[in-house]
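ingest -> validate -> predict -> emit
validate: passed (alphabet ok, no gaps, 278 aa)
predict: started
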Amino acid sequence: MAETSSIPIVDFAAWQSHGSDVEKKAIATELVEACRKVGFVYIVNHAVSPERLTEAFDMSKKLFDLPHDKKLLAPHPPGFTVHRGYSWPGLEKVSNAMGDETDEDLVANMRKVSDVKESYEVGSEKNTDQPNVWLPEEVLPGFRAFMTDFYWECHRAAESILSAMAVGIGLPNENYFRPSHPGHNNQLRLLHYPPIPAAALEQQSASRMDAHSDWGSITMLFQDDCGGLQIGDPHNPGNFVDAPPLKNAIVMNVGDLMMRWSNGKLYCDTDKLTDAYH
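emit:
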């Protein structure tokens, strides 16, 4: 297992090519060791091809390059329940705070510092609890079709990671997690971090994304070459270390749910976006 920064690198090539049981066991062991010690891991040679990632980043750029009024044709629904469609800078505030939208004091305190980011969220078309909110086809031709396919490509990559995780922690079946991960409750999120005025940073009235953990099973992140991601330093709690971009790699991290399912054997740490990057 290689390592860059403080984050291990696990090569999934043998897993994707239906390698031997010995090869797959070695990958599973490396993956789980990384999840136990760090909670984050770079995964290379996974199920999403470099060509598709290039297409995804290109389509994402086309989306965020649209005029603001065009993006608002697919607005994020009001409230905290449904996470679909376009969220404009300042709409969302990420934190590790516990509460809901009825806690007015909590909401007001969190809103003192805005998250300067915009996002677009997509899910399964069969999830009626979280219906997708799409742009009109003429606004961005091909966007809906591409993102629908890409969503399921990412799900297949997640399935292979969860299978390796099951083997690595000694479960009796590599498909152990599949019944609870049918793909219809996932979320594909496109993110863009526009420039922040220096004055806003100096006055601490704006941020990128504060430190937080993810509540699900696992998170898969694809980075461009801008950088900015930091993860909790497993050797110095309360501090953060850079997670520099590794081309075409998945940055995978354990979520709160997987940490609970594993009785704490798999470690869920925090991550954040630094202010210094655009």
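The two ends are 31 Å apart (CA to CA).
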